[in-house]
Design a protein that fits this description.
globular, about 475 residues, disordered N terminus, 22 strands, single chain, Rossmann fold, disordered C terminus, 4 domains, 8-stranded mixed beta sheet
């Protein structure tokens, strides 16, 4: 068990370690007998190819952010055929030491799970209110942001607070303003009745499709665990079902192979909750496609629901006269929110939806966090620098080289800065992409990068050290 954990840790830290240890990893992978017999029955003659694929090095794939400066790293190998702006990499770099990764220029996502785009494009042609129910760490949420029709609103939810923090960081770095982050149980959404045009439920599962990437999934697998997961998945969907409008779309996915958690659950949803299949199940498997295991299907709700509570009418917060509104593009399109001297901006298009949701759900962030008033000073929110809505001429810019960018992301203080930079708030960028803010006080610059985001890895003799 310790050997499994060690190899998995080294793989996540640096691909070169995994490459060197790959032959050892292949010799110790032992699949549970019950999993083998069940999956052999499912695949038939394809089993030998599938089994061999589990011994191969997992591919690495990324998806670029179309709202930020296009990049095309030399490590890119081939395009992911079912996803836009998505590529396989020739090898796994040290993402932690890439400033463009922290700037939200791309997201590291398993290729098979990107098939979500195909289902969304096939069935959501008009602006929609969409709930990503089990959204952490953020792969599907950031993909939804990029492929949903313009004018859509995404509510990204995660019930576990620690995972919600990771989700929030990834969403803020992606920089979209039409997103609301919530920290609620599925029953909370169901209790308020029909609101969403679509719900994406990438439900917790037994993880069979991740066996070659996560040895822990092999150790935890059992028939009883499969049954437990299947029952939990049904409960999650049933709890949130009232939040889906009649005629709305449920996109259901797992990273597992068995029928109990996949086809059987889809049939149960249709029969017990009232739905019809509109997207036949897709199974992506490592011996058929370049990626891990993934299952996805979509159903349309045929049963009817009515809102159980009508939220009270609320008024938008007034815009403070002293607020530097020119920070954002198209000022007329935004509504300013204030709370305890903290400012945020949401698209006016979604103002009523925001206030409706805020009556019932725990909102961790919404739109574009702008900053805080401290005495006479305005301290910008780090997320403002990363937002695609930022009006870049609003701040003076310091273009950092690579070493300086890593120092900034490590939240180090800069004792020397260009003499031409004015005092006050300065936007720092790397390869013209904003990273965050500093405060130039003349003799030094205070680093305003969030402590909880800072990286702890550094370069020593061209190799990463922790």
């Amino acid at each position: 068990m310790i050997l499994y954990q060690l190899i998995n840790h080294l793989f996540l830290m640096d691909a070169q370690f995994f490459k060197n240890l790959s032959p050892l990893y292949e010799t110790i992978m032992e699949l549970p007998a019950a999993f083998t017999s069940r999956t052999q029955a499912l695949l038939g003659d394809e089993w030998p190819s599938f089994e061999q694929s589990l011994l191969e090095t997992p591919p690495v794939s990324i998806r670029f952010n179309p709202a930020k400066r296009p990049i095309f790293p030399s490590e890119c190998d081939a395009a992911v055929p079912w996803a836009s702006h998505a590529y396989y990499l020739k090898e796994r770099p040290v993402f932690t030491l890439d400033p463009l990764f922290h700037a939200g220029c791309y997201y590291v996502q398993e290729a098979a799970s990107m098939f979500l785009e195909q289902v969304v494009r096939a069935h959501l042609a008009e602006p929609a209110k969409v709930l990503d129910l089990c959204a952490a760490p953020g792969g599907k949420s950031t993909q939804l942001i990029s492929v949903l029709p313009e004018g859509s609103l995404l509510v990204a939810n995660e019930v576990i607070r620690s995972r919600a923090a990771v989700l929030g960081e990834n969403l803020l770095k992606w920089g979209d303003s039409c997103t609301i982050l919530t920290n609620n149980d599925p029953t909370d959404f169901g209790r308020q009745g029909a609101f969403f045009d679509a719900i994406v439920a990438d439900v917790p599962c037994s993880g069979e499709g991740m066996f070659r990437k996560d040895p822990a999934a092999i150790r935890e697998w059992s028939l009883s665990h499969v049954q437990l997961c299947a029952e939990r998945q049904r409960r999650i969907v049933a709890d949130v079902w009232p939040a889906l409008k009649s005629g709305g779309l449920l996109i259901y996915s797992t990273c597992t192979y068995n029928r109990e958690e996949n086809e059987d659950n889809i049939q149960w949803i249709c029969k017990e909750l009232g739905a019809e299949i509109v997207e036949e199940p897709h199974r992506l498997m490592p011996h058929r496609t370049r990626g891990e295991g993934f299952f996805i299907a979509a159903v349309r709700k045929t049963s009817s629901e009515t809102r159980t509570k009508k939220p009270p009418k609320t008024q938008a917060h007034p815009r403070p006269a002293s607020f530097p509104y020119s920070f954002l593009h198209s000022p007329q399109d935004w509504t300013i929110l204030t709370h305890n001297q903290e400012f945020a901006a949401i698209p006016s298009l979604h103002e009523s939806d925001y206030h409706s949701l805020s009556q019932h759900f725990k909102i961790l962030s919404a739109g574009v966090p702008l900053g805080t008033i401290k005495g006479k000073d305005f301290v910008p929110a780090p997320a403002l620098a990363l937002s695609s809505a930022l009006d870049l001429p609003a701040f003076p810019v310091w273009e950092l080289n690579y070493t300086e960018a890593i120092r900034y992301l490590r939240k180090e203080t800069f004792a020397e800065i260009p003499s031409a930079l004015p005092k006050g708030i300065v936007l720092v960028a790397y390869q013209t992409v904003p990273l965050g803010f500093i405060k130039n006080i003349g003799t030094r610059a205070n680093n305003l990068y969030p402590s909880e985001w800072r990286i702890r890895m550094s370069l020593q003799n061209d190799f990463p050290t922790i």
